[in-house]
Amino acid sequence: LLCWCYYFEIIMHITYVWLLLYYLTNNAAANEPHSTHFGQKDDVEDVEHMKKHLHGRVDTNSIDNPEMMRFYYFNLHDLNKDNRLDGLEIIKAITHYHKDDHNVEVRVPSDDELEAVVDGIMESDDFNRDGFVDFAEFMKRSSYQQSQFSFQNMPNFGWQKRPLFISGIFMLIFLLSLVTQTAISVRLAMTNVNNFAHGSVIIITGYFGEFIDRVVFNLLAGKDIVFHFNPRFKHNKVYRNSKINGTWGKEEFDSEFPFAKGSNFSLFIVCQRTGYRVFVDYKAKFFYEHRFLVPRVDKVTVDGDKNMTKLYDLLVY
Questions:
Q1: Is 20 among the domain residues?
Q2: Which residues are paired to 268 by β-bridges?
Q3: Which of 73, 103, 117, 205 is the most exposed place for a label (fewest CB within 10 A)?
Q4: What is the domain range of residue 55?
Q5: Cα–Cα distance between 185 and 94 in angstroms, integer?
Q6: What is the value of pTM for the model shown?
Q7: Cross-strand pairs, 149
Q8: Domain holding 261: CATH number?
Q9: What is the pLDDT tens value at each position of the chain, 317 positions in all?
C-alpha cells in the first residue's frame, strides 16, 4: 500500500507540473516582455523610426533623405534651438524610454546619477571640448546608433499534440532538473550593432528573479568577446574579461556587487576612449580598459536563465 501511495504521489506531481507548463507554454506570447525598437540596421528602417518621433512636428512624408531626417531628429532634441545639445537635452534624449509602460515601477534616477552618465558621453562625443554636442559631432559619431533587438521567445514544444508517454518523459526530465536545481543558460536577447564607436551607449533594463544564479552580458566582434560582463549572485562578484582568438584573458573582479535578487535593474555601458564605463542603476560602478579594437563590435548579447531574468529593453546609441 505504501508503495502504491508513493507512486500515486509521483504521478500527481508529474500531472501538476505538466498542467502548469502546458498553461505557461500556451500563454507565453501573452506574457512576452516588452521591447522598444529605437532603430534598425539600415537607413530605410532608421528613417521610419525617426518619422514616428517627428510625426505631427514636420511633414515627414516629403523627407526621404536619411541625413535630412537625422537633422530634424537632432533638432527635435535641441530644445532651446541653439544648434547644439547640452547635458540636459542629452539626458532627455537617452532616457525617453522611461515613458514606455513596462507594468513595473521604475525608479527615477537623480540628477547627479544622470549627470555621471552624460559626462561619459561628453568625454567621447564632444570633440571640440566646448561642453556641447553640435550636429556635426552628432553625425560624426553616428550618435543615433542603429540596432535591432529581438527577444528569444519561450519555445512551444507542442506537448498538447504529443502522446502522453512522450509528455511524461519531458516532465520527468523537468522534475530531475528541479531536483538538481540546474539553471540552463540560454540566449535571452541579441542586438546587431552598426558603427559602434567611442561614445556609444548600451542601455539594458530588466528584472532579476529571487533565485537567479548568474547572467552574462557580452559585447562581440565576430567570434571574439570584446567585453564579458558576468554578475554571479552566488559569489556576490561581477567578473569581467575578454576572449580573443579563442583564449580568455586575465579575469577582473572585486568586492563591489551592486545587483540584488528580486529587483529591477538598469545597466548603462558607455564606450569611452580608454575603456568601458559601467553604470548600475545610474551609478558608476566599474571600468574596464579596452583590450580590443572598438569599431569591430557588431553584437550585444544577454545570456542566462530565462526563468530568472526578464528583460525590458536592450538599446544601443
A1: no
A2: 203, 279
A3: 103
A4: 43-151+183-316
A5: 30
A6: 0.53
A7: 191
A8: 2.60.120.200
A9: 444 544 555 565 566 555 555 544 454 444 444 333 333 334 444 556 566 666 666 666 666 666 666 777 777 777 887 878 888 777 777 665 544 444 555 556 676 777 777 887 777 777 777 888 877 777 665 443 433 334 443 334 444 445 555 555 555 554 554 444 445 568 899 999 988 888 899 999 999 999 999 999 999 999 999 999 999 999 999 999 999 999 999 999 988 899 999 999 999 999 998 999 999 998 999 999 999 877 689 999 999 998 899 999 898 88
Please check whether residue 209 lies inside any domain of the structure.
Answer: yes
Residues 6+ apart with CB under 8 A from 123: 199, 272, 273
Identify whether 30 is part of a domain: no
Considering the domain boundaries, does residue 158 fall inside one?
A: no
